[in-house]
Design goal:
single chain, alpha+beta, three-stranded antiparallel beta sheet, 2 helices, 3 strands, about 15% strand, rod-shaped
C-alpha cells in the first residue's frame, strides 16, 4: 500500500505541474510571419490569436488574394511555433519521458 500512496502523490504533483504549464502556455506568445515579415500573426502557446500585423504596402485592394495567402502562411507558422513551445514545456513536466504516438498533452 505504501507504493500506492507514493504513486498518488506523484500523480498529484504531475497534475500541479500540468496546471502550471497550462498557465505558462497561456502567457507565452509566439509570432509567425510570412512575406518576409510583411504579415505577422501572434498566438499564445494555446493557439489563441493575439495580434495580426500587416505591412501597409500590402493594403492594396487589387492584392487581396496575396494578402489572404500570407495571412494563412503566418498563422500556420505561428501555430507550428506554439506547438513547439507546448512540446518543450511538456518535456519539462514529464522529465523528458516520451509520450506514446498520438497522445498529446495538454488535452
Amino acid at each position: 500500500m505504501k507504493n500506492l500512496g507514493q504513486m498518488m502523490k506523484q500523480a498529484q504533483e504531475m497534475q500541479a505541474k500540468m496546471a502550471e504549464m497550462q498557465e505558462q502556455l497561456s502567457a507565452t506568445e509566439v509570432t509567425g510571419s510570412a512575406g518576409g515579415g510583411m504579415v505577422q500573426v501572434t498566438l499564445t502557446g494555446k493557439n489563441e490569436a493575439r495580434r495580426v500585423k500587416i505591412d501597409a504596402a500590402l493594403a492594396n485592394p487589387g492584392e487581396t488574394e496575396v494578402l489572404e495567402d500570407l495571412i494563412v502562411a503566418a498563422i500556420n507558422d505561428a501555430r507550428a511555433k506554439a506547438e513547439a513551445a507546448a512540446t518543450e514545456k511538456m518535456s519539462e513536466v514529464t522529465g523528458g519521458l516520451q509520450l506514446p504516438p498520438g497522445f498529446k498533452l495538454p488535452f
